[in-house]
């Protein structure tokens, strides 16, 4: 099973072997989430390797351990690191090192049956794996380096991901010496996880509670097969005796995953009985009862009391009321193995005993990787939990609830989560002790009674999620495979406002089956206005139905709980409830049948849970400041750093310019030089006023793009200052939120539609959807029905228009466009010109960089001309065009032409004469205003007095032909 650190590891990209490697990696990745250690601190941590005996008699094993000892002489709290399924102590080595550098004594170990530890896998059996944990805690109690709460009672926390998370929960239930735990992406009931059935009433007021019939369920055959495949490889002495010792499997860190049985235990090949050989080949490292349970489940797909007994033995569900250690529950929203309902059940069971519980959901899980920022934030969550509950240091993490800000997108590629970097904070997990119940919004669904066919043998089957590889919808470009005739669909009306679903929706359906029982799968699709569908997180709800009516005219009403999700259904979208008869990830009935499926009472409401909270866009940064505040108190050096930082911030605040709102952009002596000596921009100074459309002109290499990149905070200037609305511009500057830009390519996602690209971009800003002004931006794009087609089908001009609309989302106060008319035809260029002029007329400011000088002349009010990294001219278009040039003089009465020539030539340095265009005067630097005044003073009526040359002429005169 994969823990959180494994979510960001690289994956192979192609081929059957690559796919197998991905699956193994997902099961073997077992690190936790802590910050990377500093190189200097790494030298201060000492390690001790030891083989620790545990158990007695036939169940005695040796556990391979590494003890990490921090610098310093004072006793410190301890943390036990438990790895994921298929991993070993090497899988968590980096995390152990990090915790030790934080001042903890850390014990990492390989569970029995894994790595170099001996024994067989019992699936966290309290008699074996959990008893081993107590043995390790006994060992910690004997160490002088470990802080004690009492004789034989060390101050200790336990954390782990997936399989290791189960160890943390069960350990806290069976060993009261454990003081705090942080289980991650783990289970509450293995029966509910591997034989789910989300049918029936939920006796809970929480957001993600999922019902489970302990006597029946739909077998999750693909996930179960992956687990058994990882753990059933023949191992140890018996494998060597059979001639297979040179092979073996490896864990994710390259270490031999076969348990070392010891040379003295190697049997003589001649003494091995045939049935023993067969048993070893079939069961590998699993205990016999676990192996038998799997064989029975895989053969029949049926949950028996014997199978349930094995699964529940290693499930925290039955002992949650024993847990008194403060518990941080971390669960992923992209997880078809251990869904949000598993963490919900753990939270309810532990909190009911009065134990402090904090619940954190994150965008990721067993199916999908997550962003580096989310990973770093979760690392701090775990470290902060132990700091407070083991050391009494730092801010109280509380018992609140955190979840990723809902978006309308799921995973991409091979299950990579989009977004997820923004977190919503709620005061409490809804429905727990002393917390308000979850709120649910009612969404009306409609649709007729529909027949649903289940095929013989369960094939062909619908495709939704590939275990460990995320939603197959992503891999297939956003489309799941529903088999015609095998599903019923019911839809809502288009939503008038966006609906954010946080948790597991519920709905009542009516089902009839000829034999009185049925296996079905419920799922909730997000359907866009153009018909595009998204299955949030690729999750489905299996339904094992019994006691059904056989009469289609009188179907049985059943309550269905859909998968727990975090998803935003945008306004204009519809919710589609699909109830299908097949899913390739589950065991299916062998017999063909036809079911009848309808909404209860001919129409019913879908109850979707919602959670109010405050969106925190930079949660990781806020926690870093908490950590920094603690470090400040540790020494003079940290104090000095904080002081310097404070002065820097005050200096920045003092530089806010009082006229900033009137001057949206100001460059002051800006230079950008690179290490090789090349100077891209030199001493550039100019300012742009509110309501102006500024054209940035210059030949290739003039420094235009470099200037724009500095303006947007993508690179830093070497010297000088750039201010936006009076605030210093730079990477991450808050004032950049007032800027919209389109520079260096469209950056659109080709597999998404234009509309979804716009929504994705806005969702990434973390700002409310109503602030996007989406319709205005869509009107700018002007794509009509093509807006809902994939971008990969767009022409260059269409992509350009979507990118410009994207830059205008939120109606930014400062709009920066680089070559906006590339790929546009003349009518579109004309329309774009009008859009930009109208936009600036509202009091906003536009900056356009373009090589189409005629468009700059017709669009812009002001121009900055650059060459070789320097500004060589600035002013209005009229000023730039008119400098040192000729003017065309139009007279009301042509009879005045000779007199006008005489007046003009009477001015210093001015010459005039007739041309094919009319009367032209070469002013040779003489003021145009003074020349016009002279004509008016001579009673000559003038109706035209305009510069004769174009902007292109002025540009070439300024920068030179070359």
Automatic annotation (TrEMBL):
Q: Does the keyword ATP-binding apply?
A: yes
Which Pfam families does its entry note?
A: ABC_tran, Peptidase_S15, PepX_C
Keyword vocabulary terms for this entry? ATP-binding, Hydrolase, Membrane, Nucleotide-binding, Transmembrane, Transmembrane helix, Transport
Q: Does the keyword Ribonucleoprotein apply?
A: no
Q: Where is this region: Disordered?
A: 249-274
State which residue ranges cross the membrane.
Answer: 624-645
Alphabetized PROSITE patterns for the sequence: ABC_TRANSPORTER_1, ABC_TRANSPORTER_2
Q: What's the family? A: Belongs to the ABC transporter superfamily.
Full protein name: ABC-2 type transport system ATP-binding protein
Q: Which organism is it from?
A: Blastococcus colisei
């Amino acid at each position: 099973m994969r823990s959180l650190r494994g979510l960001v590891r690289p994956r192979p990209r192609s081929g059957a072997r690559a796919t197998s490697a991905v699956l193994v990696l997902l099961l073997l990745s077992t690190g936790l989430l802590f910050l990377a250690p500093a190189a200097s601190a790494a030298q201060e941590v000492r390690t001790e390797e030891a083989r620790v005996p545990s158990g007695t008699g036939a169940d005695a094993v040796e556990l391979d351990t590494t003890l990490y000892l921090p610098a310093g002489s004072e006793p410190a709290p301890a943390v036990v690191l438990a790895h994921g399924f298929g991993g070993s102590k090497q899988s968590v080595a980096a995390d152990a090192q990090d915790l030790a550098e934080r001042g903890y004594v850390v014990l990492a170990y390989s569970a029995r049956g894994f790595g170099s530890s001996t024994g067989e896998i019992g699936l966290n059996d309290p008699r074996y794996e959990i008893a081993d944990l107590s043995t390790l805690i006994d060992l910690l109690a004997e160490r002088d380096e470990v802080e004690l709460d009492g004789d034989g009672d060390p101050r200790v926390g336990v954390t782990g991901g997936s399989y290791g998370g189960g160890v943390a929960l069960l350990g806290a239930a069976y060993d009261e010496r454990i003081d705090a735990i942080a289980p991650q992406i783990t289970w509450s009931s293995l029966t509910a996880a591997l034989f789910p059935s989300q049918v029936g009433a939920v006796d809970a007021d929480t957001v993600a509670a999922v019902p489970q019939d302990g006597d029946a369920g739909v077998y999750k055959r693909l996930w179960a097969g992956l687990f058994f495949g990882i753990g059933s490889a023949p191992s140890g002495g018996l494998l060597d005796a059979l001639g297979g010792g040179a092979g073996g499997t490896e864990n994710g860190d390259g270490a031999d995953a076969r348990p070392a049985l010891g040379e003295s235990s190697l049997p003589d090949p001649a003494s091995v009985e045939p049935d023993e050989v067969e048993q070893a080949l079939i069961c590998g490292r699993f205990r016999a009862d676990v192996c038998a349970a799997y064989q029975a489940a895989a053969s029949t797909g049926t949950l028996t009391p014997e199978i349930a007994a094995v699964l529940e033995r290693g499930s925290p569900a039955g002992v949650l009321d024993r847990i008194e250690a403060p518990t941080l529950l971390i669960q992923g929203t992209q997880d078809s193995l251990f869904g949000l309902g598993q963490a919900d059940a753990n939270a309810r069971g532990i909190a009911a005993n009065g134990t402090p519980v904090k619940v954190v959901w994150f965008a990721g899980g067993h199916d999908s990787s997550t962003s580096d920022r989310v990973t770093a934030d979760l690392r701090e969550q775990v470290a902060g939990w132990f700091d407070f509950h083991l050391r009494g240091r730092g801010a109280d993490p509380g018992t609140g609830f955190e979840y990723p800000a809902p978006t309308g997108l799921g995973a991409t590629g091979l299950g990579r989560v989009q977004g997820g970097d923004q977190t919503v904070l709620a005061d409490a997990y809804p429905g727990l002790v002393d917390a308000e119940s979850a709120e649910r919004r009612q969404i009306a669904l409609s649709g007729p009674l529909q027949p649903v066919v289940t095929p013989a043998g369960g094939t062909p089957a619908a495709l939704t999620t590939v275990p460990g590889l995320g939603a197959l919808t992503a891999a297939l470009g956003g489309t799941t495979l529903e088999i015609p005739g095998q599903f019923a669909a019911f839809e809502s009306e288009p939503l008038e406002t966006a609906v954010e679903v946080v948790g597991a929706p519920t709905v009542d359906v009516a089902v009839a089956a000829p034999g009185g029982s049925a296996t079905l799968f419920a799922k909730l699709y997000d359907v866009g206005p153009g018909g595009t569908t998204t299955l949030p997180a690729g999750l489905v709800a299996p339904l094992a139905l019994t006691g059904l009516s056989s009469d289609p005219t009188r179907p049985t009403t059943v309550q269905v709980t859909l998968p727990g999700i975090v998803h935003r259904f945008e306004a204009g979208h519809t919710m589609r409830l699909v109830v299908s008869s097949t899913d390739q990830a589950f065991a299916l009935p062998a017999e063909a049948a036809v079911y009848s499926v309808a909404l209860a009472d001919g129409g019913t409401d879908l109850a979707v849970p919602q959670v109010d909270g405050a969106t925190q866009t930079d949660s990781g940064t806020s926690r870093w400041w908490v950590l920094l505040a603690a470090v400040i108190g540790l020494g003079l050096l940290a104090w000095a750093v904080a002081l310097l930082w404070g002065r820097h911030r005050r200096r920045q605040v003092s530089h806010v310019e009082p006229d900033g709102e009137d001057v949206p952009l100001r460059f002051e002596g800006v230079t950008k030089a690179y290490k090789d000596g090349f100077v891209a921009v030199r001493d550039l100074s100019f300012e742009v006023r509110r309501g102006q459309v500024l054209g940035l002109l210059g030949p290739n290499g003039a420094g235009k793009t470099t200037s724009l990149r500095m303006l947007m905070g993508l690179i830093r200037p070497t010297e000088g200052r750039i201010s936006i609305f009076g605030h210093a511009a730079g990477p991450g500057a808050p004032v950049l939120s007032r800027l919209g830009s389109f520079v260096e390519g469209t950056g659109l996602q080709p597999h998404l539609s234009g509309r979804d690209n716009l929504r994705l971009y806005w969702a990434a800003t973390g700002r409310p959807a109503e602030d996007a002004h989406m319709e205005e931006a869509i009107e700018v794009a002007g794509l009509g029905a093509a807006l809902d087609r994939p971008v990969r089908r767009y022409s260059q001009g269409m992509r350009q228009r979507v990118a410009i609309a994207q830059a205008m989302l939120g109606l930014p106060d400062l709009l920066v466009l680089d070559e906006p008319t590339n790929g546009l035809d003349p009518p579109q260029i004309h329309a774009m010109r009008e859009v930009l002029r109208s936009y600036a007329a509202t009091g906003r400011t536009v900056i356009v960089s373009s090589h189409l000088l005629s468009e700059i002349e017709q669009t812009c009010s002001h121009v900055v001309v650059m060459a070789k990294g320097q500004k060589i001219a600035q002013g209005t278009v009229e000023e730039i065009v008119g400098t040192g040039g000729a003017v065309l003089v139009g007279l009301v009465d042509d009879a005045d032409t000779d007199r006008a020539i005489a007046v003009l030539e009477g001015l210093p340095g001015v010459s005039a004469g007739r041309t094919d265009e009319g009367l032209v005067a070469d002013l040779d630097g003489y003021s145009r205003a003074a020349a016009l005044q002279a004509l008016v003073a001579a009673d000559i009526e003038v109706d035209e007095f305009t510069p004769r040359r174009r902007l292109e002429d002025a540009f070439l005169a300024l920068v030179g032909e070359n």
